[in-house]
Amino acid sequence: MNKLYIGNLSPAATADDLKQLFGERKLPLAGQVLLKSGYAFVDYPDQNWAIRAIETLSGKVELHGKVMEVDYSVPKKLRSRKIQIRNIPPHLQWEVLDGLLAQYGMVENVEQVNTDTETAVVNVTYATKEEAKVAIEKLSDHQFENYSFKLSYIPDEEVSSPPPPQRSRRGGHSSRERGSSPGGSSQPKQLEFPLRMLVPTQFVGAIIGKEGLTIKNLTKQTQSKVDIHRKENAGAAEKPITIHATPEGCSEACRMILEIMQKEADETKLAEEIPLKILAHNSLVGRLIGKEGRNLKKIEQDTGTKITISPLQDLTIYNPERTITVKGSTEACCSAEVEIMKKLREAYESDVVAINQQANLIPGLNLSALGIFSSGLSVFPSTPGAQGSATATPYHPFALPEQEVVNLFIPTQAVGAIIGKKGQHIKQLARFAGASIKIAPAEGPDASERMVIITGPPEAQFKAQGRIFGKLKEENFFNPKEEVKLEAHIKVPSFAAGRVIGKGGKTVNELQNLTSAEVIVPRDQTPDENEEVIVKIIGHFFASQTAQRKIREIVQQVKQQEQK
């Protein structure tokens, strides 16, 4: 329940007055109005309705001659680390918002709230309540391109009502849906990966049908759940549709929607051929494209379609997804959909595995709080309307974080983007990650790469490196059709190098197979003054991270044995 406080009420205001006022503005109340002298409380079961009530009424509506104030009801003793920021420009880049938030403290989590408002809304969790308080004071009514930020405290479940043991949090799947038994064992279940489509707004009515009959028939036949986000992006020429089903159910629903739109277009002569438009989270698109565009070319050749992908520049705070446009006959588009979704699903499942590995390798690592991807606040593709369904693990800072040094090599021409104007970007990045980040001087006038020296504990390494990988992708320093792969160097004690290599190269080969990264331990190295040698790791972000953690693990084991 989202309890709202209504302040600055006239003594003449009654509960019926408030009910009528809310009703007239299509803001139906979930329960009774609790009226006090000069203020009142109302409940909303849904955060979106609560946001809509605040946006519609606060400071804008008079009752008996007094302008009402509406905000979340959070008692002072429960004001914690969680705040909500509303009225954010929809085109604001994540990076700019991150920089703003980081000025007031360590941000643990940022979650976008899917609302019907044209501006963006995010919930932010700071490391301490003092930092959250400063952010509220400094950012309230902060002006950005004629938009004035609106901030509120929001209830912090950990403070107000800790979840009882043995129960899953609200918003996730129930244990029955997950296939787990009371004893805790679970059957392997295929990860749900919904199909997201964009359809022209003029065809939405035909897809729903008279009294909703067409959409009901579609969901029944395909055994799917279909969400048409009609209120998203008011006035837009296209609307998103999310289809939850098995891969076969998604494909069948896609086919039926394309056929409905084509029939409607033929009858109204609005368009000759309707393209299929699939939405995909930016973090998955590189692997759909494949090296030098091979995957995409093969799908085009096999299905007889023409496929284009929207540019990275179109990504904003309100749009972490790329649009994949498929042109061809309905039959050809349907065949392409199967292949495209297969690749995206594989990439998604691979990320889930990699993320789980990272969570196991770094105890207490709060992956969904890292915000390392510039195109979205979460590692996972988000599904509108499924707020809170991927609950973050509690944040546990390292008790004794061990300082690690990683040298990451970036293209020379990317140095300016990493440093930013007057050094702002690298300062924000260091503050965000909790790491020291320095760029070494160029080795010569024609050096094609520069070394970035990152010093910090494992979690800081993960955050800093992730942001650098994301920045290079976003700024187009790599071909849009290829995955960002960088070379990282870590140092290990010379006495442990043999264990990293393994007998006959067995360990290093296993490492490469496990992580998909290239791992090189140059054999003829002279140890440095600290008796350490370099291990080179080349790969995309998750591959590199997993390899780094595994190598550190091996070194730790060797050190423990040496001490014994």
Automatic annotation (TrEMBL):
GO terms for molecular function: RNA binding. Signal peptide: none annotated. SUPFAM superfamilies: Eukaryotic type KH-domain (KH-domain type I), RNA-binding domain, RBD. Its main location: cytoplasm. One of its GO terms (cellular component) is cytoplasm. One of its GO terms (biological process) is mRNA transport. Residues 2-75, 81-156 form the RRM domain. It is found in: Cytoplasm; Nucleus. Belongs to the RRM IMP/VICKZ family. This is Insulin-like growth factor 2 mRNA-binding protein 2. The lineage of its organism: Eukaryota, Metazoa, Chordata, Craniata, Vertebrata.
